[in-house]
Amino acid sequence: MIRLAILILCLLPLSLAAQDRLRVATWTVELTRKGPGLLLRDILKGDDPQVLAAIQHIDALSPDVLLLTSFDTDLDGHALGALAGQLGYPYHFTRLGNSGRPTGRDLDKDGRLGGPEDAQSYGEFTGQGGLALLSRLPIMTENIRDFSEMLWRDFPDASLPEGYFDDEDLDVVRLSSHAHWDVPVLWNDAPLHLFAYAATSPVFDGDEDRNGRRNADETRLWSLYLDGALPVPPPEGAFVLLGDSNLDPVDGDGRREVMQELLSDPRFQDTKPRSDDGPEANPDHLGDPALDTADWTDPLPGNLRVDYVLPSSELTIIDAGVAWSQAELKENDFRHGLVWVDIAAIP
After folding, report:
1. What is the 3-state secondary structure (H, E, C) of the chain?
2. 18-344 is classed CATH 3.90.1150.10
3. pTM attached to this predicted model
């Protein structure tokens, strides 16, 4: 009977077998399609190789809280609901973000309106490649703070590209390329705030560096939020920042000093999750290749560290890592690893 009890405990999910630890993770899963509703179709079919491989990888890592980025969202969250059902997550949250959302402005200055680059951020339809949260912990929906509609020009010390946008552009252009959420979940009767976001790529622009500037400001938002510099007061209690910053602190394009500043902020912990089986190192890169979370075309941009889980300083870290899917797909390969951190219970 004792051996049987031990076996049952080993087979239980992490959050049920040990209430004193929590696995928080993020994965740029790239479950995105060319049109609205197509991802939902592929999830419901039950035979899509990429969807099945994603489910297998998530099951194997068994995060208690998982932020998916680059996931097609819809108005009523049907795609996320279908995936949550297949994975057994009782709670989930998403909203249509800014990718693909029309602006009515010629933001890429090509003389034509309505293209994917004229949206709030690149996208062929609203919600393409958005954010989605899966959780075994109750989500305190009524306490969610959503910064996604903040205009870029209203952001403190905004790094707007000088002379590129006109006043009418600035009346509509938002800071968030996808979304910025503060989502509290209830863990052991206390809220744990999840700072969730995904930033634009800092390339695919011109000398004005509009994407590089926006990318940097999207990451700067969290420090300013904690500083009390935004229109709402900072949250009380523990928090975890998680998502895809699209910014490596030492390699690749973008304003790397912004990522360095965030990682050195004493209010966050950089646990430096590592992988033992990641992509082959780029010989010209300065960063530790075991920390890389994205496997892009070599030699440029190469492999970079762009996905993060950063717990607040008062939390105790048990373990952390980067887990790469071993699925061999003919198309829609997973170019990012799943980043996870195990946290001890809040005292």
Report:
1. CHHHHHHHHHHCCHHHHCCCEEEEEEEEEEECCCCCCHHHHHHHHCCCHHHHHHHHHHHHHCCCEEEEEEECCCCCCHHHHHHHHHHCCCEEECCCCCECCCCCCCCCCCCCCCCHHHCCECCCCCCCCEEEEEECCCECHHHCEECCCCEHHHCCCCCCCCCCCCHHHHCCCECCCCEEEEEEEEECCEEEEEEEEECCCCCCCCCCCHHHHHHHHHHHHHHHHHHCCCCCCCCCCCEEEEEECCCCCCCCCCCHHHHHHHHCCCCECCCCCCCCCCCCCCCCCCCCHHHCCEECCCCCCCEECCEEEEEECCCCEEEEEEECCCCCCCCCCCCECEEEEEEECCC
2. no
3. 0.93
